[in-house]
Amino acid sequence: MYASLPARDEGTDGEKGVDIDMAVKSREDMYPDENTPTRLFNGTPFRDLPICDIKASKNNTIISVSNAQGLVKLLRSCGVEGFKNARKGTNIAAQATAISLSMKALDHGYKTVRVRVQGLGPGRMAAIKGLQMGGLDIISVTDSTRVSWNPPRPRKRRRL
Asked: Which residues pair with 118 in a beta bridge?
């Protein structure tokens, strides 16, 4: 009778949940300090970890993996992945692109990465989740979105 029952559902294949509060030993480990560049993650100093750049625009999401010196090794976008026109700007396209890029990164020997996110598109969080689902270990997430300190000129006054 038990053999006919379906297997216990462990969630989506490849997706894992991490309790952040359990991973952080103390409050000091959560924020960077002067020892962060030399701290080891899986045997590699933080400053030597590869960087995964995510550029999320309104119309597309471009994800690249570069070494610590900034030389781009892998590059994928939603258009390369096969999504066309308006579908390139969706979160599903960004997640699929991130999963395929993380598989290629694992083939090249990149297991632990830093993530740098730029832009305010719909693929921001989906790309990070896709990288994690693909098997990459994400150490840090940095937002490097440019902020305009001189806002656009306001509209002219309405005349009645």
From this structure: 55
